[in-house]
Amino acid sequence: MKALGGTSDILPKEAALWQQLEQEARRTLDLYGYQEIRTPLIEEAAVFTHSLGEAAEIVTKQMYLFQDRGGRSVALRPEGTASVVRAFIEHGLDKTAGISRFYYLGPMFRAERPQKGRQRQFHQLGVEVFGSASPYQDVEVLCLLVRLLEIWRVQDWVLKLNSLGCREDRRKILEEVRAKLKLHRSRLCEDCQNRLEKNPLRILDCKEPGCQQVSRGIDVFESVCQNCRGHFQTVLDALKSLRVPFERDPHLVRGLDYYTRTAFEVVHGGLGAQDALGGGGRYDELVQAMGGNTAPAIGFAVGIERILMAQEKGGLESPSLKVFIATVTPREIPVALAWAEKLRARGIPAGVNLEDRPLKRQMEQAAKLGVKQALIFGPDEVNAGVVIIKEMKSGQQEKQPLSSLEANEF
Ligand code: AMP
User: Fold this and answer.
1) Residues 6+ apart with CB under 8 A from 57
2) Which residue has the CA at smallest separation from atom 8 of ligand 1?
3) Among 5, 95, 180, 354, which is 20 to 30 Å from 321 by CA?
4) Number of neighbours of residue 257 by Cβ within 10 angstroms
5) pTM: predicted TM-score of the whole model, two decimal places
């Protein structure tokens, strides 16, 4: 007997590499304040059909669907977000205030034609953040993705970004793309002719030269509203100031219905046809669409098998939060975020305020996190090149030059 096509055994020698990769990921996720969530491998099929979209190829072509002994329609999970959202709502977590940061790690199942880098059972590490609409949350999630790639010794990656706008924009984009592509129906491949009615956005990332030629001039961002444009610009500006390299990709649409606003993918030059290491984006409407309270959200998933293929071999290393960086106004967030990134890069677990909220609330959060020290940046401090360091236990605080942060071990 043999393992099913598209599934593989991970033998002990290789499992050690998996464990190392997982440990490195868990440590990094701790640095950013994420907590693990584990959901079942099987779900009611509707969890996926309702969220991913009836027309999504994962649903129509790739989902392992079966009737269980009670005649229920059950699916092996093809991805992680829908299950996490289902759990988030089922356990009333959508009714608690604040921001929730989750990660998951485990197998996913898709009945795709197996090839190099493409399996029927593969593994994903994913993160989901609920409760923040801040563009700086997008930025922090992208910083986390990049940090994971660094910690995993993956080089030659390219981060591609786009904005799909809000739900209204998406509807507009869908109609416009469909109308434009309909004019050239006969030049599209057979699959894309079918996608024209059901899932026209998917045509934009079809690899067939004919389809690429037809869709070349289309930029979905042109139909995105003013608010969503502002959100995206803030994300791009902050990424630039943090020196995170990225490319704008006007054809990056992702395959699923739930994505809104920022969408992204990381590809790797050395992987051949299946070059995506991971991808994700905002899904501000999904929690509500699945029956929960309104909760803006963002997440990504990376494919572990592909990370292992892309990894430079050798090396190791990296530790609950020790320090929290607060801001007096939202304008100091980029500076605070840059310092959080610097501290995390030194292996110091750091939290940072990303929201427009009073300092008092931030200090309450810092106390809850149990950090020893809080760093506070206000407009005056930023102008003067200083920072307020507050000892959480005694409540004493003093101004220090920024250079003191470089040496502080916290
Ligand atoms: P997706 O949910 O399709 O965006 O997938 C996220 C990541 O999971 C991809 O970028 C891949 O790294 C990985 N992935 C997706 N499908 C497969 C597959 N069939 N085999 C191996 N890895 C996969």
Assistant:
1) 199, 202, 255
2) 303
3) 95
4) 22
5) 0.83
